[in-house]
Amino acid sequence: MDGFSKEVLSRLPLAEGTLALLSWVLEPEFLDEVFENHRGRSYESELSFPVMVSLIQDALLEHQGSAHQAMKRSDELNVSYQAAYGKLRRVPISLSRGFFAQATDRLREVFPDGAGILLPASLRDFDVIAVDGKKIKGAAKRLKPARAYAGTPLGGKGLAALDLRTRLMLAFNAHPDGETNDAPLIPGLLPQVRERASRRRLWIADSQFCDLRQPVLFAEENDAYLIRFHPKNSFQRAADVPVREGVDPHGRRYREEWGFLGQAKHKRLYVRRITLFREGAEDVIVITNLLDADQYPAADLLEVYLARWGIERVFQQVTEVFHLQQLISSSPEGTIFQLGFCMLLYNLIQVVRGYVAEAQRKAAETISLEELFYDVHRELTSLSTLIDSPEVVDHFPPAQTALALKTYLRELFASVWEDRWLKSPKKKIPKSTEPKKPINGGHTSIYRILRTAKQNAAKDV
């Protein structure tokens, strides 16, 4: 790399750090191994798996999700655009899952030690894992059988697991039918997470998993669960165990009961039920197999359960920030591969945010992922414009240790900071109770609305 290129790179630290991580995570030899382990019946001929990954990476990071633009600018593509799209359309789900999970394993090796979120004291021996599903919306109707249908169909369906301590997605399972329920995907997800979360797991899930089967699966291998209670189930309180009540740190009242989930004629589960009473909002009712209220206080369990919404926020960021709303492929399998890649990019930016937060001695949660990625995208675009791609690739040798990469990133991000990355303080917007005003004819203009408001204000004077 010549002097000009080195000077450009030194002025784009976010791009340099991101590319260093990508070079580590998406090393071609590693991708070849992933493909061999998870390819199923798929094969490589003219278009290799590392080249396809590179194309999707460029599309999502530099071209707002446009694979066509990435292909036109690629120096590695040696097949037609149609062949490249066809290859993506046929990616097996097993390869999408394996690629995401193993690439995330490499990211976890370099995750900054002090960037995790502190969990309640009683739960620090657990790996707290939130589980939720994601329908992939907005699939294009390019395939001939889909063209005759009105509306916008769904792509595939994913069920993902989020580590609440690191805020990294750990693994996902998927089905090509976007309309499928989340529950059938559980058996394929839990073993992937258990392979990666070495401590006892505490699974957190919403009410659709509250039946007599899913808690049993969550409780295997001595794991614990915390699931929102669904009113379709019955709960019979044990008369010999007294009800306990208390107040959480926010001054909200809660109640604890012990009893059986399910009808007496079926196999029932003995659980602890906790009800959090919230004024002006729906009460939160959860069940758990952590029965000891002294060892696992209700306030701690409610705190981590209410943090479960974070996985829904992750899906929103994956869609809006990392361009999942612009689907590259029109097949269910292709959309699932893109979901996995977008979640991997989310994890990568989480690592970058962790190093920035560590250097500034700030909590990672105070830094906006959207604002940080916006600047990452700007710097990557600038870098690709000013420096030839092969020169950039050669600058980041993939053969390095995780420790060396962590040291390199700490030094790189030691003085990188912009005040605009700080999250804006939360504002509680009061809900209006006034009914919406009807509009004559079904439409109007802002000018007329403002004129009417001014006329009404003049009458009140």
What letter string, H or E per element, gives the SSE order? HHHHHHHEEEHEHEEEEEEHHHHHHH
Number of helices: 16
Roughly what is the average pLDDT, rounded to an integer?
90
Please provide the count of β strands: 10
Structural account:
With 461 residues, the chain is an alpha+beta fold. 42% of the residues lie in helices and 14% in strands. It contains 16 helices and ten strands. The chain has helices spanning 3-10, 13-25, 28-38, 49-62, 67-72, 81-89, 93-109, 186-196, 214-218, 298-306, 309-320, 332-360, 369-386, 389-395, 402-412, 446-460, and strands at residues 126-135, 157-163, 168-175, 200-205, 224-228, 235-237, 244-247, 253-261, 269-276, 284-288. Strands 1, 2, 3, 4, 5, 6, 7, 8, 9 and 10 form a ten-stranded mixed sheet that branches. A hairpin with a 7-residue loop joins strand 9 and strand 10 (284-288). The model has no long low-confidence stretch (mean pLDDT 90).
Short characterization:
With 461 residues, the protein is of the alpha+beta class. It is built from 16 helices and ten strands. Strands 1, 2, 3, 4, 5, 6, 7, 8, 9 and 10 form a ten-stranded mixed sheet that branches.
Quick tags:
single chain, globular, 461 residues, 16 helices, alpha+beta
